[in-house]
Amino acid sequence: MLCMDKSRFVSPAEAAEKAVRDGDWVDYGFGGGFPELMDRALAGRKGALSNVKIRGGLVIRPRIEVVEQDPEQSSFSYHSWHIGDYERKLQSRGLCSFMPMILRFLPNLYRHHIRVDAAFVPVSQPDSQGYCGLGISNYAWRTIFENARTVVFEINEHLPRLQGVDGSHRVHLSEADYIVEGEHEPLPTRSYKEPSSTDEAIARNVVREIPDGAVLSLGVGSVPFTVAKMIANSDLKDLGCHTGTISDAFLCLHNAGKLTNRRKETDTGRSGWNLAMGTQELYRWIAEEPELFRPSDVDYIHSPERMGQMSNFISINGGVQLDLMGQENAESAGGRQLSGTGGQLDFLEGAYRSQGGKGFICINSSRIDKTGTRKSNIVPTIPGGSTISAPRTMVQYVATEYGVVKLSGLTLRERAEAMISVAHPDFHQELTQYAEEHFR
Question: Which of 149, 180, 211 is the last residue in one of the domains?
Answer without folding.
Answer: 180
